Amino acid sequence: MRRNKQRRFSEAESDIELSMTPMIDVVFQLLIYFLVTFSTADVLAHLDISRPKPDAAPQQEKPPADMIRVAVLPNGYAINGREMTGIELETMLRRLANISTKQTVLVTCDDKSLHGRLIQVLDMCAENGLSKISVMSGK
Amino acid sequence: MTPMIDVVFQMIIFFVCTAQLEQEQFSEFIKLPDSPNASAVAEAKDPRTITIEVDGKGKVSIARTPLTLSKLRKILNKTVADYGVHGPSIPILIRADTETRHASVKQVMDACTTAGLYKIAFVAVKDSID
Predict the structure, then answer these.
(1) Cβ neighbours, 10 Å, residue B96
(2) ipTM for the complex shown
(3) pLDDT reported for residue A4
(4) Is A124 helix (H, G, I), strand (E, B) or coil?
(5) pLDDT of A93-125, one tens digit each?
(6) Distance of CA B9 to the CA centre of its chain
(7) Does pTM surpass 0.80?
(8) Cβ–Cβ of A119/B105 closer than 8 Å?
(9) Measured between CB atoms, does A116 come within 8 Å of chain B?
(10) Which of chain A's residues have a Cβ under 8 Å away from the Cβ of B98?
(11) Do A32 and B10 touch (CB under 8 A)?
(12) What is the mean pLDDT of chain A?
């Protein structure tokens, strides 16, 4: 009788043992959930950097730069008012860039011409090292 | 069975979540113009950059959400107001389809300039696949 009781007791003691597997499962779930939902705040966007105002630096008086006016027409291009084809424009831009790459290129684009052709002109400018480009939205 | 089901559920949840994260922010139907000579985009991108998309039919969208021009104007104005002093320095990227008319791109540019945003760049591809 006594022995029997003892045996039962020891059995119950071994049953108490905590099974780890489900707990690990749940913890992994939580871990993955938090990893996925965690999103870093855009720290850089909210930094209140006190940048020097552009007025602080003495503005250098630059000689008025030459300006190249390029127009993108629905079927063709025009440079400084003279109409030409794409190949002519390319050679013209190359020649102008050889004189100076500091010139400003003012690109106007017709409403009806395709966006890809505007990019082509910008690409030509980049190819020839003309980096001062402004795109005007003319009426 | 139970541990196997546990593991499988884990995997399902993991893949569902990562799939959502990888979802493209931009429309894949826009055929970008190519520009082999332009300088590559710098890696360190301003986190405030707004990418505006214009598809081949001239429809404007941000992050796959189609917008009307008045809505776009409202969004841009609000963003500029939210950032206060640093508002006007927010860069704009325009992902326009190569086949779209310039008129629709111009409308977007106009909306940006009326909101006071002047740092506008066009997106193009350096090496086209075909």
Answers:
(1) 31
(2) 0.70
(3) 53
(4) helix
(5) 888 888 887 888 888 888 888 888 888 888 888
(6) 34
(7) no
(8) no
(9) yes
(10) 114-116, 119
(11) yes
(12) 75
